[in-house]
């Protein structure tokens, strides 16, 4: 499998930015139940206003995450750009019999979300200088946590479908998971949220992408959701459709692997009028 992604800086620390961007790029492989073989750096760097030391720190952060999941950094390409961006082209592999598709959920499955929502709102608040570092540390820890460990924690369990939650928000990616045979019941009260994001939400610090997501998902949902469920995530968690008999064990394994906010947030039911019901 091959995947590619890159982002612009979310934080002032170049090493942490490199870690977040790499974790975000690597996530697509883990969302398919795969493992990373190698990666190539993709870099746009403003060398007119920033020193090469900043660039080195970004790349060091990215390499740190590639190494953490057992991958090899095999090169890359850097160009001069007016805005900094960084990401990876990633090569991964997966046993075809263990591949996680994103649209094969089955009636009776339970839906598990592995990370809390709110990183899009946090990114907006950081850019607006609304928060001090200590106030959004929970978001940083969430974004740099690789989904790699979730794949290992779920080995041997029946994962019928999976996706990572990124730019389309929770409900946008949930819609991608639905096939002609099923609908999702999602329980908003069960969805984990970053504490720092709730503070920002009260101040109206919501990215434009989240409103676009809200408009996009509206035809498939039975009622208008809270904007947080449409928040455009960076390096978000996995949304998993897990066989009911394995759900409790999956949740325990995920928490033990470091995904302490993991929660069962819904269930897969027979296809009804709407694709998603908020209950």
TrEMBL record:
Q: Does the keyword ATP-binding apply?
A: yes
Q: Record's CDD domains?
A: SelD
EC class: transferase
Protein EC:
2.7.9.3
- Which GO terms fall under biological process for this protein? selenocysteine biosynthetic process
UniProt-recorded Gene Ontology molecular function terms: ATP binding; selenide, water dikinase activity
- Domain PurM-like C-terminal stretches: 106-277
Matches recorded under Pfam families: AIRS, AIRS_C
Per UniProt, the keywords (alphabetical) are: ATP-binding, Kinase, Nucleotide-binding, Selenium, Transferase
According to the entry, every stretch annotated as the PurM-like N-terminal domain falls at 3-94
In Swiss-Prot or TrEMBL terms, this protein is called Selenide, water dikinase
Q: Which organism is it from?
A: Campylobacter gracilis RM3268
Gene that specifies this protein: selD
